[in-house]
């Protein structure tokens, strides 16, 4: 089986440690754990590794967040990967920092990266792994918040969070979305939060760039 794992973010050193780049961070951690190396290709950086009998391709789009769908559509077609074998990894400020939520499909929640993918695929029927970044901003401040750098305590919690995202993605490939979703979401619900954040979970309550 072939799988495409797309982690969303913005290219450029100025965005490297921002909350909106959680998808890039997750794929970097997975690539390192899998001895895979990214190389620059059309529409993004690509890495590939084998996981048992599966070929896993990692994609970090170079299109910037708002045009993520162009890269995802191109590489699905280029590699002849069915849409049911696509997993998109994305930040979500409707979730408390450190919370993971996997879904088989769903709304974009106003996330422009997911909106671009929905538009380019003409469908929202693909799996996504949402990484909570919290919502520590005043009304109207969400854009500045997601494009700002992680706080020191968040950076300290990041390695453990990325270990969990790596495990969730591996389980998705090896055992399928249903089992991975149930396991990932149950474990995330049981884990104590590394930070105290007043955020609430919702698929539709935020708007990000």
Notes on the structure:
The chain has 209 residues and is α/β, with parallel strands linked by helices. The chain has one domain (2-190): Peptidyl-tRNA hydrolase (Rossmann fold, 3-Layer(aba) Sandwich), CATH 3.40.50. It has helices at 22-33, 68-78, 112-121, 142-146, 152-175, 177-190, and strands spanning 2-7, 39-41, 44-51, 54-61, 86-92, 100-103, 127-132. The chain has a seven-stranded mixed β-sheet with strand order 2-3-4-1-5-7-6.
What's the structural blueprint in terms of helices and strands?
Layout: E1 2-7, H1 22-33, E2 39-41, E3 44-51, E4 54-61, H2 68-78, E5 86-92, E6 100-103, H3 112-121, E7 127-132, H4 142-146, H5 152-175, H6 177-190
Parallel strand pairs: 1-4, 1-5, 5-7
Antiparallel strand pairs: 2-3, 3-4, 6-7
